[in-house]
Write a structure and sequence with these properties.
The protein is an alpha+beta fold. The protein has two domains: 222 residues, Rhopdopsin 7-helix transmembrane proteins; 144 residues, Alpha-Beta Plaits. It has twelve helices and five strands. It has a five-stranded mixed sheet, with helices on both faces. The N and C termini lie far apart (86 Å).
Length: 378
């Protein structure tokens, strides 16, 4: 069997297997992980292209040349779209420009297939256009994706694809080992055919790794955060507070906490409904986070009870933060809200977690018993 044909057959079966695997993953993973369907579609488009290439000289050139190569370009464009969706970065290109980009690609293949047949120009067209899409995706990943193992594998893959295409363009421009026929057995042509058999599995592995990393990150986030307000939940809050206390004990830093209770929250629910009550909680959390520093953490203890952890903050500074929260509540949306706050600060080596929490709780009780919408400290 002709070596290029054998390689194409191997690549076809590899692409088919990867397409099925990615499709299953896209169906089973949470819908919050975007881009999986597009990545599955990438493998599918490549899979559909291979039978057309293999049937060269047995079916019309419109299918074995124009459509087959169009499917390869579409595969890379869909892969790019999936990567953008996965990263949460919307496409920034005008649809008309994308249409013209694809139209130019098809026109070049039609011209150099029917009007002025030239396999060298067709190969250069495929290499150049796919290189543009690959470089755009590579730059996006380097700029946006966190440094994870999946990201490193995908960067490695795209770098290989970009490098090989650049090298192929150079050889075509200088006439080094030019393709004579599609199934020609030149070194460059064999390498060109072998690329998919090696890179398709690597691409699928990188997609699966990225999806698994995202799933693990999302599950960790869900286990530590409140689903409504996106604040740390009570268990995670205690862990973070223990960590901050250990840091304060070790380095002698200051530390304060605030217990915060939304005033008359039951009346808000009874008067405006529970959906409006949820919106008030979200509004409170959003505005409070905006009033805190990046190192501070807002946690939801349950219901309408919250705690703010304020590292490197003494009692006087914590009271200033509390005052800002009182000023914020009057502008709350959809319903104005107020809060009662109890503040306590770390007292040094002889202090403890339970003592710190108890003082803040007593201070909050005092604020509520004396009329609400105020702050007290113990």
């Amino acid at each position: 069997m002709n070596p290029p044909l054998l390689i194409l057959l191997i690549s076809f079966f590899v692409a088919t297997a990867m397409s099925v695997i990615l499709f299953i993953i896209a169906q089973t993973y949470p819908k919050t992980i975007q881009g999986l369907r597009e990545w599955s579609g990438t493998a599918l488009a490549i899979t559909l292209a291979f039978p057309l290439f293999i049937a060269r000289d047995h079916i019309p050139d419109l299918f074995s040349i124009v459509l087959a190569n169009l499917l390869l370009l579409v595969a890379f464009m869909v892969m790019n779209l999936g990567t953008r969706k996965f990263a949460g970065v919307p496409p920034q290109y005008d649809r008309k420009l994308l249409f013209l980009f694809v139209l130019a690609y098809v026109a070049l293949f039609v011209w150099f297939t029917y009007v002025q047949p030239d396999i060298k120009v067709r190969v250069a067209t495929l290499v150049l256009f796919t290189l543009i899409v690959i470089l755009d995706q590579l730059l996006l990943i380097l700029r946006v994706f966190p440094r994870t193992a999946g990201r490193h594998v995908l960067v490695f893959l795209l770098t290989i694809l970009a490098g090989l295409r650049t090298l192929r363009l150079v050889t075509l421009v200088f006439g080094l080992d030019p393709p004579i026929s599609f199934f020609g057995a030149s070194i460059a042509q064999l390498a060109y055919f072998a690329i998919p058999a090696l890179t398709i599995p690597l691409g699928a592995i990188s997609f699966i790794m990225l999806a698994s990393e995202k799933l693990r990150h999302d599950l960790e986030f869900i286990s530590r955060h409140d689903g409504l307000t996106r604040c740390l939940n009570k268990n995670a809050a205690i862990e973070e507070l223990e960590r901050e206390i250990a840091h304060a004990r070790r380095h002698g830093n200051t530390l304060s906490i605030m217990f915060i209770d939304l005033d008359n929250f039951k009346e808000i629910n009874d008067t405006h409904g529970h959906l409006e009550g949820d919106r008030v909680l979200v509004d409170f959390a959003t505005r409070t986070k905006a009033s805190l520093r990046g190192s501070d953490q807002l946690t939801r203890f349950g219901g309408d009870e919250f705690m703010a952890i304020l590292p490197d903050t003494n009692l006087e500074q914590a009271l200033l933060v509390a005052n800002r929260l009182h000023e914020t509540g009057g502008n709350g949306q959809p319903v104005a809200w107020s809060v009662s706050i109890g503040v306590s600060s770390w007292l040094g080596q002889d202090d403890s977690l339970n003592a710190l929490l108890t003082r803040a709780d007593k201070a909050l009780y005092k604020s509520k018993s004396l009329g609400r919408d105020q702050t007290h400290a113990l």
